[in-house]
Amino acid sequence: MSKLRFHALEPLRFPLINRFYKSYYPAGKAKKDEIIWIGEQDGSIICCVRFKQFEQYQLLTGMLVHPEKRSTGLAKQLLNASQNQINKQPCFCFAFSYLEELYARAGFETIPDNELPEPLESRIRRYRQSGKDLIPMRYEH
């Protein structure tokens, strides 16, 4: 087994990330203006996370770990590897409630909706209206 490697996705490999989402999380879809970090092993993407950029902050979104690799610590490793990106601007995420503890261990704190920047506050409301059980979180150094 080859070494696990974490890094920002090279633009030429962008189509691979949407293939990965389509296979394991069809609701997820990367956009070319996002910064994407991946973990790969043996030339295959096994986890990813995206950072959607706003003027003065960013939204961590779309974290996905290959189903066969879940509960192995990969998500935490990916968050650690992308720490420089997380630290570039204030970073928020919308955690599914069952993942709140994972993000908390990685340095995110649960916040009330009204502490989100306005575009994110309206976005989380829309997501919840569609039935998603999400918790707003902010990264605290």
Automatic annotation (TrEMBL):
Coiled-coil zones: none
Gene3D superfamilies membership: 3.40.630.30
GO molecular function list: acyltransferase activity, transferring groups other than amino-acyl groups
PROSITE patterns found in the cross-reference section: GNAT
UniProt xrefs under SUPFAM superfamilies: Acyl-CoA N-acyltransferases (Nat)
InterPro entries documented for this protein: Acyl_CoA_acyltransferase, GNAT_dom
Domain N-acetyltransferase: 1-141
Keywords: Acyltransferase, Transferase
Name of the protein: Putative acyltransferase
